[in-house]
Amino acid sequence: MTPSCLASQASIMLIFNNTNSQPPTFLLTGIPGLRAAQVWISIPFCLLYIIALSGNSMILLVILREHSLHEPMYYFLSMLSVTDLSLSLCTLSTTLGVLWFEAREINLNACIAQMFFLHGFTFMESGVLLAMAFDRFVAICDPLRYTTILTNSRIAQIGIIVLIRNVAVMLPVVLFVKRLSFCRSLVLSHSYCYHVDLIQLSCTDNRINSVLGLFALFSTTGFDCPCILLSYVLIIRSVLSIASSEERQKAFNTCISHISAVAIFYIPLISLSLVHRYGRSAPAFVHTIMANVFLLIPPVLNPIIYSVKTKQIRKAIIKVFNHKQSQI
Fold first, then answer.
1. In angstroms, rounded to a whole number, what is the distance separating the alpha carbons of residues 220 and 94?
2. φ, ψ for residue 180, nearest 5 deg
3. Is the pTM of this model over 0.85?
């Protein structure tokens, strides 16, 4: 038997043994080099999680309670809040578990499940931001047909399409991760399971996993970002054609909150990609902190931005607090 045949047989046996044995257990990583200070570092992280969960819950509550907010713009905002809540909950248990209790172990199935929801909700946020850009485009460029184009049934269809797209791109990613064999160091680089991080620990060929990961990225955020930019080019062109400067300013003001939400989602995403690619000489804790901050910035800041910049949301929140105080 030739050496190449022996190598192939050994590889097949390795995969066979891996699929029939217990799923491997991975070790999550807190803040590299700052292990002694992890408990203190966890305090700001905990506060950020509290702000994210309470802020997005408040946005959902006021939209649900106030009939005046039952409009397309606020339906899309509620989708964004649900996505941000889900994104925060995806990493809450493992991140705080690692920082507080050194609970670093996670098995392959749990890791894959977290990875599926983590990447899925990230892609969903991108899709919801695109839907919100379409909402602003219709409201400004074709206001007379706004209510006929964005009906309740159409908004529901848009939400379902975004959900189906995310499941469709993530299922192959998950299924091909299940086929990998792991025989090297099983220490992950973050306090949660990240696709690139996980497949790099494989001792079998992971090229198809890399291709599927890139396809998932480019078919979601890679498609959404140019479409959002295009929608704002058309919006700006439409606004500049308005004769009244007061009306122009009013039209631009309706977009400020959404532009801010797009910026706080895509700028950290691009920054994190650049740090991973070009900042290899940076300390490991810089990568880890940036990765955690990237996941927390949108859920923390989105409710704050919409509460401050959107008059109707701000009034509804004040009304809820006043109602609670009157009951005390």
1. 26
2. -75, 155
3. yes
